[in-house]
Amino acid sequence: MNRTEATSEPVPAALGRTFPTLMATSLSGRVVTLPDDAGETASLVVLAFLESAGEMAESGSSPFSGDFTENPRVKTYLVAVVGDSLIGSSLADRIRQGLRGGTPLAKHDQVLIYPEDIERCRRAYGIDDPSLAYIYLLDGRGIIRWMEKGTATPEGLADLLDTAGTLIEPLLP
Fold first, then answer.
1. Which InterPro entries match (predicted)?
2. 91-102: per-residue pLDDT in tens?
3. Is there a contact between 90 and 84 (Cβ–Cβ < 8 Å)?
């Protein structure tokens, strides 16, 4: 299967549930706890387990970030799950270095490294296939309002952007 094709799937079972707490370290060294640190914002959280999921993660996060770049009440977090049990510590360190070098300094607080047990993470977030990216849209209370896995489709992106617009509309001054 060509992973660059649109392979997105909605995951309705997660909708309406609170996003499980995730503690990770940002590229700037700050410990971030999601959804708490997202505050009263609409937040896109993208979980990627393997480097091969990077394009999938970008397929959903780039259009979202592009549409909401100027809005301070919208945040995007990329979470690289690099638990040593799956890929080994030396490769995890190389992934951290690669992300640090390929991410603009202004975004270092929103690119997170989650070094914990991968199997526990998979259970907590309902991850059945770690080769895919998992994209969650959270409201200001940490409730999952939209979710897909895989490469974003045009329909999925339209739904994501509409849902995000609905979430931030009441927050606008």
1. ATP10 (IPR007849)
2. 556 666 667 666
3. no
d(Cα 69, Cα 110) in Å, to the nearest integer? 13
Q: How confident is the model at residue 138 (pLDDT cuts 50, 70, 90)?
A: very high
Closest CA relative to residue 47, chosen from 127, 117, 104, 103: 127
Encoded tokens for 170: 């009441």
Q: What is the pLDDT of residues 24-56, one digit of tens each?
A: 888 888 999 999 988 888 899 988 876 666 778
Between strands 31-34 and 42-48, the pairing is unpaired
Q: Which residue has the tokens 């360190």?
A: 93
Residue 38: inside a domain? yes
* Contact by Cβ (8 Å): 77, 42: no
3-state secondary structure of 104: coil
Helices within 32-83 (DSSP H only):
54-67
Q: How many domains does the chain have?
A: 1
Tokens of 107: 């975004």
Whole-number Å distance between alpha carbons of 60 and 44: 9
pTM of the model: 0.80
**DSSP annotation of 143:** B
Question: Is 33 a domain residue?
Answer: yes
CATH for 143: 3.40.30.10
